[in-house]
Specification:
The protein is mostly beta strands. The protein has three domains: 160 residues, Immunoglobulin-like; 210 residues, TolB, C-terminal domain (Neuraminidase); 84 residues, Macroglobulin (MG2) domain (Immunoglobulin-like), CATH 2.60.40.1930. The protein is 3% helix and 53% strand. It is elongated.
Length: 473
């Protein structure tokens, strides 16, 4: 008998995995307690490091014109390096003794500087001379930091990013980071992401340009939360103290080794002590090779991870996704408050490849005769009696405008096919009726939908499968 069959047999025989009689039991698994989900698709690699010399206090920001690096210190000094990191000259900035950010605009080949204030200057790298471009009010906050991309400043202040047009000084967009993880104000931008930094400097949080959280990765050498910059194709940070170093990291994006998703049945998820909530759990293989992965699920409360269940050594063929409904019990002694429900996939404990999470709130009076333990029924793995032929494929995939979903029914029964977007919101229902045994096909016309990743979920009376498809326009 295979290992997966043994796991499924144990799981189905016992039904649930119990972790506590009242509250969380035993030792909390503090080795898995990130405040945010972590995945590893952005991999930083240290490419260059070089010292800075002249700053009396901490360094602040760095940029590049393609031929040199220009760095500023908080105390108002400018230092210029060649691309090998060797110092060429230093200058005291003439217009201010406190600075926040420096950026290079390739369109006019000028250096722009934000001081401790809301003005905007150009800066001469040779003598440190300034030219006032916009008076007070160009930026929103004196203490904020800024990145720059394609003619726009991205000003960050405590989880809010303002996109400001260089030419008109108009704030064209206000972006709320969701969730706002960068405690301090440093920010860097490239063509793909907005990056903000933790107060300790090591953790960097990546966001899409609509403010949605993507992932967190770590740069080992950084000790500050104030000096994040992006230039010359690298993400820069520093030791943030006198006579320290700048560190430049290339950012490689890799395909995740697995794909895990959870979609709650209700939104928001509110449960009484002693009650339960339901979700659809999905695990898949987005790669071109067969994989064997672990999936582990838990509750984060007060920044501690409390494990609920683990599915070990799941074999997945290329492009294959499977899903099932999970039911999480909440004990009647659970404290009221907000919790995070999180699933990881990867190779536990060494590697977390992907994660999915949602919040749930425990509130109200305890249910009389309700559940007394944290435990999980179902989730991620369908019943072994369900034939894998239930879903054949979505073709073409990726697709443009329309896609054909083909599936095989082993017997006559009720079938429902729903389509969800990447955030777990249902887009449409394609089928919801009795169907005869055999092969069937249904078309989805997505001409009015935005490009991106979608999931189609096929549900029968026995169980359900979910698979991924990509719309490219």
């Amino acid at each position: 008998m295979s290992k997966i069959a043994i796991i499924l047999g144990l799981f189905l025989s016992f039904g649930v995995l119990v972790f506590a009689v009242s509250g969380f039991a035993g030792q909390e698994d503090n080795s898995y307690k990130p405040e945010v989900p972590i995945i590893t698709s952005i991999v930083p690699t240290l490419e260059i490091s070089f010292p800075y010399y002249v700053f009396n206090t901490s360094t602040q920001s760095i940029t590049s014109n393609g031929s040199n690096y220009c760095a500023i210190g908080y105390d108002g000094w400018l230092e210029v390096y060649d691309l090998n990191g060797d110092t060429t000259h230093s200058s005291e900035i003439q217009c201010t003794d406190r600075v926040r950010s420096i950026v290079f605009n390739p369109e006019d080949s000028l250096l722009y500087m934000k001081p401790w204030g809301t003005e905007l200057y150009t800066l001469n790298p040779v003598g440190g001379h300034c030219n006032l471009i916009w008076d007070t009010g160009f930026f929103h906050n004196s203490n904020s930091c800024t990145g720059f991309l394609d003619g726009y400043f991205y000003e960050h202040r405590e989880g809010i990013v303002y996109k400001i047009d260089l030419q008109t000084a108009v704030t064209v967009d206000t972006i709320q980071l969701n969730p706002p993880l960068g405690f301090y104000n440093s920010i860097a931008v490239n063509e793909d992401y907005i990056f903000v930094q933790d107060q300790t400097g090591g953790a960097v949080h990546a966001y899409q340009f609509d403010g949605e959280y993507v992932e967190t990765f770590y740069i080992e050498a950084s000790t500050s939360g104030w000096d994040l910059s992006y230039c010359n194709g690298m993400l820069f940070s520093s030791d943030h103290y006198p006579n320290g170093n700048w560190y430049g990291y290339s950012l490689e994006e890799i395909i995740p080794c697995c794909d895990v998703n959870m979609i709650p049945e209700d939104d928001p998820v509110i449960v009484e002590p002693g009650g339960r909530f339901r979700f659809m759990g999905e695990i898949g293989n987005p790669t071109d090779e067969p994989i064997v992965v672990d999936v582990w699920v838990g509750v984060i409360y007060n920044n501690n991870f409390h494990p609920q269940f683990q599915f070990s050594n799941l074999p997945l063929e290329p492009g294959y996704y499977m899903s099932s409904i999970g039911s999480q019990r909440v004990p009647n002694m659970a404290p009221e408050g907000t919790y995070e429900y999180i699933a990881y996939c990867g190779d536990r404990p060494e590697l977390k490849c992907d994660s999915s999470w949602f919040e749930f709130t425990v509130e109200g009076d305890a249910i009389s005769g309700g559940f007394t333990e944290w435990s999980l029924d179902g989730g991620f793995i369908p019943s072994p009696e369900l034939p894998v032929e239930l879903i054949t494929r979505a073709y073409p995939n990726p697709f443009n405008a329309s896609v054909s979903i083909t599936f095989q029914l082993p017997e006559t029964g009720h079938v429902r096919i729903d389509v969800y977007d990447i955030l777990g919101r249902k887009v449409t229902s394609l089928i919801n009726r009795e169907m005869e045994a055999g092969e069937h096909s249904v078309q989805w016309d997505a001409a009015d939908m935005a490009s991106g990743v979608y999931f189609y979920k096929v549900t029968t009376q026995e169980n359900s499968f979910t698979k991924q498809m990509t719309l490219l326009k």
